[in-house]
Amino acid sequence: MSLNRGRFNSVEKKLPPGVNLVHNEEHDVDLAHFTRFWSKASGSLGASEPSPGVLKMALEWPGGVKTVSVPDGMSMEVLGAFAGELGFAESPYAHIH
């Protein structure tokens, strides 16, 4: 999100090594494309860049959208609890609400 529409990195568009800038013409948004993964969660999800259409919706959302980073372990724990609640998997975290 920071690469677009007046946000903090929308002018310089500085990205770390292993991340390339990609422009999606259909939705007119800039995306960060990961060429490799360092995290267990990112690698297992397999998404090397955000969905351009979803990013555009977030940028246009009334009132704005905040992005956050969550540690891998927490993401995986919550996903396990969610899957357990829906009956997709036996999860040791199913009791978490």
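Next protein, fold it too.
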Amino acid sequence: MNKKYVFTYRRIGGKCSHCESASFFNRRTCERDWKKETVIGHGPESFEHSKEEITNGVSQRSIIRGNDNTRMVLYYEDGSLRVIANWNECELSLGQDWVLATKEKMENEAGRDIKLSIGGS
């Protein structure tokens, strides 16, 4: 089972949505623009498409896979998802709950305990 964590993000740049100031420095202190979502996962939107080329009368098909770093996908516990467009215009804040959820996922995949080193020592 996936652990839930809080995914906190906001759009950056431009005018604050509730105050008169357009100053970047004033906006950095404004907390009202942060949006919080309780999710079980997130990541850049992935894509896959096939490409067909004909060389000397021979058809060759290849599959191209990658990530679209301008769109972020949020995964919810009920199986639904949400795509945040223009992700490159946002900033993200993840807390201790995300660290612990990631640690537990890594432990399950590795089949062993993982010790966290806190404080750069």
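About the second fold: The chain has one domain: 5-110.
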